[in-house]
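A common beginner's mistake is to predict each chain separately and then try to dock the pieces by hand. The better habit, illustrated here, is to supply every component at once so that their relative placement is modeled jointly.
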Amino acid sequence: MKNKEIAEIFNRIADILELREANRFRISAYRRAAQNLENYPLDVAEASAAGSLHEIPGIGKDLGAKIEEYLESGEIEYLNELLDETPDVLLDMLRVQGIGPKTALLLYNELDIENLADLKKAALEHRVQGLPKIKAKTEENILKGIEFLERSAGRIPIGTAFPLAEEIIDSLSKLPYVDKISAAGSLRRFKETVGDIDILVTSKKPVDVIRHFTALPAVTRILADGKTKGSVITSTDIQVDLRVVAKEAYGAALNYFTGSKEHNIRLREIAQQKKMKLSEYGLFKKIRGGKERRVAGKSEEEVYEKLGLPYIAPELREDAGEIEAARDGSLPSLVTINDIKGDLHFHSDWSDGTASLEEVAEAGRKAGYKYLIISDHTKSLTIANGLSEERLVKQMKEIDRINARMKGFKLLKGSEVDILPDGSLDLDKRVLKKLDLIIIAVHSRFKMKKNDMTRRVVKALQHPFPKILAHPTGRLIGAREAYEIDMDAVINAAADSGSAIEINAHPLRLDLDAATARKAAAAHVPISIGTDTHTPATEMKYMLYGIATARRGWLEPKHVINTHSAAKLLSRLSGKKGTK
DNA sequence: GCCGTTTTCGGCCCGACTGTTTTCAGTCG
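With all components supplied together, the output reads:
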């Protein structure tokens, strides 16, 4: 899908237009279009072919033409022209926190710099201070900004940010003068990576809360400590912002700081149409004498209600159709963690897991699950101690013994069968037939050509067993690109063969991603959520991220097979041979 | 550059904090 690539180009154009001090509404038009493209659930190439580009919000005549230009030629001439006239270092400087377009231009014009290293050197030699409106403090901040960028190099995976946020919230909520507290921002929306952590509290002693916050042991640097906002960098180089808000504005503030920005803009527009004003302080109605009266703000529910909308879950707030769905009453009833009856991707110490079958069963029962699948690797994956046919048969007998002792809980017999480069499966069919269910996955030869990889996976989906395709793109967030594969063809093959596709809940995988999961579910492909746990104590809780991804993909319980009983989920995976 | 049961032209979301200032610009979210 080219959606993301084009979104990046539009953002880049917006950056350059900012440096040129272009019309700010033109700049935000590019940014809005980029955001909408990134969240658009369908392939922009398909939309273009169907002549429906203009249905993507924020895409008009001009940007539509630029998208088509990119789809045809792989380039956008306008960006090339802009880039030719823009020194790289100006764009690099925009990524430094505290440097915006004005400062970047000033530094570029006044200092002889070609890259961030030059700027760092200039700051170290104190050649930055002394420029108009720049003194020692600003120079120091620029230096710290560059160093932070060097260290953090991008965004933080949700699996890193979420536990840290939980820890901070836990510490703050123990303070007697902290009333309400919640994470906000992209973390609350469960984006797969976040730029920072936002936390919101209400308190009668804001200064004390912020003092406690900036003194937390994990804090290594304080960026701000005002009366309503504290901002710090932790020892893991993650920025955390804390905001203290008034009780009567908590809902409005939570809504505002949860975003997304695009969702908020839509809400403000709705407020305006109703002759009201929405800000982080509340929803206000204008009354006589130019004054205004607060009509909502205490809770998010209240804000949505007064705007004439049902409550919209944070995971949906991307302006990806949720406002329209809310208006016409078609919001999905999203799947929740309480709907989940079992985990559908799990390893034991028979391959590369750390827990014995008994321990896995006990962990599953304790988690309140009805079932849990044992899906150890197969023989090709020697590095993971993959199981041969003989060992798998032995393992099945062992599982039978354990199941005989369990009440109200069952281990399902499965295997994470390697999809070999030619699309065949890494175990004899006579043994596969004895399993309840198989999980199929690619673990080797990631760099195949797109057509070959697609053919490989599609062929594997056509084998006549009940099955789940695991981590279908192989991506590792921040570490490994997805392999080249035609996911539309894969989704079709899964639908034809009655197979499920997994949302792998490991926070560095989240594969399927939310947009593709939404697409697969729309094509009537059952979705499975599996944690890929190798160590129960630390990884079973990844289910949380899988559920969040499903919710971001608009999935309801009916779309997710592990909301079913074991019997129903097995009957739903037909195991018929694919037709294509 | 987009968009329209208020508009095809004239709008386009709103406010806090910082660092430099003496009333505010720049940045950020």
